[in-house]
């Protein structure tokens, strides 16, 4: 590893722009040789559905950037660990088959318990 403190991100709202930036930060940390993981809480879990198509996806594609769904897949492929809050998924009436492959499920206690003393925590 790079000696960098791991980056832990928590997404708390259904804001696709904020989630996009969190995924970009996670991928950047991986590119620097570090570790990154993200926990999606509340309504943010809805943004991880495999069939999600957003109005702004076309604008991102027009400038050569991936859609949010593609960015999620790329982040997972790069090594960003993504977990969805189990309770939030249940509250939305969804099941794991609605989400991208490679996503885990955890609650906030398990996510926070996995943080080290020097981990950097960012809430988006």
3D architecture notes:
With 124 residues, this protein is α/β, with parallel strands linked by helices. It has one domain (7-123): Hypothetical Protein Ychn, Chain: A (3-Layer(aba) Sandwich), CATH 3.40.1260. 36% of the residues lie in helices and 18% in strands. The chain has a five-stranded parallel beta sheet. Helix 4 links the parallel strand 3 and strand 4 (104-106). Helix 1 (16-31) packs parallel to helix 3. It starts with 6 loop residues before the first strand and ends with a strand. The model has no long low-confidence stretch (mean pLDDT 94).
Defining key terms:
5 helices; alpha/beta; 124 residues; 5-stranded parallel sheet; Hypothetical Protein Ychn, Chain: A; 36% helix; globular
Element-by-element helix/strand order: EHEHHEHEHE
CATH class: Alpha Beta
Low-confidence blocks of residues: none
The level of helicity is 25-40%
Strand content: 15-25%
- Report the average pLDDT across residues: 94
Summarize the main sheet: 5 strands, parallel
| Strand order of the biggest β-sheet | 4-3-2-1-5
CATH superfamily: DsrEFH-like
Q: Categorize the overall geometry.
A: globular
Looking at the overall shape, the CATH architecture is: 3-Layer(aba) Sandwich
Q: Count the strands? A: 5
What kind of assembly state do the chains in view correspond to? single chain
Structural class: alpha/beta
Number of domains: 1
């Amino acid at each position: 590893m790079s000696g960098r403190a791991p980056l832990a991100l928590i997404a708390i709202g259904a804001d696709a722009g904020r989630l996009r930036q969190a995924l970009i930060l996670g991928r950047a940390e991986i590119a620097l040789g570090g570790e990154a993981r993200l926990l999606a809480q509340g309504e943010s879990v809805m943004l991880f559905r495999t069939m999600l198509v957003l109005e702004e996806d076309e604008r991102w594609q027009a400038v050569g950037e991936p859609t949010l769904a593609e960015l999620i897949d790329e982040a997972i492929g790069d090594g960003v660990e993504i977990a969805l809050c189990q309770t939030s998924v249940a509250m939305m009436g969804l099941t794991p088959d609605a989400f991208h492959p490679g996503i885990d499920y955890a609650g906030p206690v398990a996510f926070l318990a996995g943080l080290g003393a020097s981990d950097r925590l960012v809430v988006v």
